[in-house]
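Standup notes
- DV: blocked on the single-chain target, sequence here:
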Amino acid sequence: MRPSQFVASVLLLASATHAWPWGPVDSAAKDLAPMIMGRDDPTSTQSQSSSALSSDSSSSSSSGSASSSGSATGSATTSASGSGSSITGSVKSSSSRQNSTSYDTTKTYDARLPAGGIQMITPAPNGPATYYKIDQPVTFAWNYTSLSATPSAIDILASCSTNAQIYTIASNFTVTNSTQSIVWDTGAFETSASVALLTADYTLIIHDAAKDISATAQAGYLATFNQFTFGMYQPQPVVPFKDFVCVTCSGALSSAERQALTVVFGTAALCVVSFGWFTGVVGLW
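- DV (later): unblocked, structure below
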């Protein structure tokens, strides 16, 4: 290339360069500068990466919160509609376990001590058999013996083996003294009893109301008392003697009874005749 041509080319290029609109290019260069500088600066890259990670973490946390909120809402709904009874049942179960936990607060006495008992006063325990008329008041009285722990209440019952029934004379009868008594109004009892009293023998039962009849007796505590027997019968209206009929009697003799009487009278007659003949023969008559 000739020198004159080279100089002309330079001048043309300089004019074109001066006439070119560099403003937008400078702006673009300015926008690209941080990126170029950031590309070259590792600290900036790390910072941008951390920022991106933070942003991702924040977005993940936000979505997680939203998810957690959704799951919380779902749980709350399920709990309110489906698990409410389960929770209530669980509470009841827990409280029932607490209630069912038994703590042995019963005082224990020396095992060599006898169990508490009852001694009858009325009727007399060693007297003749006692029979009570149904519809009349019946009185029982007794003493407590060998009691180290007095029961707060007792049950008083009458057991009849004929119809396998147990009649309640008194329930939760308060123990106040070492000697007690009770009047059983059998007339009033009959009006409300579902099973009528029979003409039969009965056993008086007295036991601690807090324990079962068949509970094992403990030293110092009241044992079940069932050692007194009495009879009861239905009263009958007064009947004149001439109208009285004995339902267990019979005016006719059985064949065996007639034969026995025949033998007795026959033997007696034979003895008399034989003795008379003997005395006549001997000359004693």
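- Follow-up: The helical segments are 3-19, 23-40, 42-81, 84-100, 186-192, 255-282.
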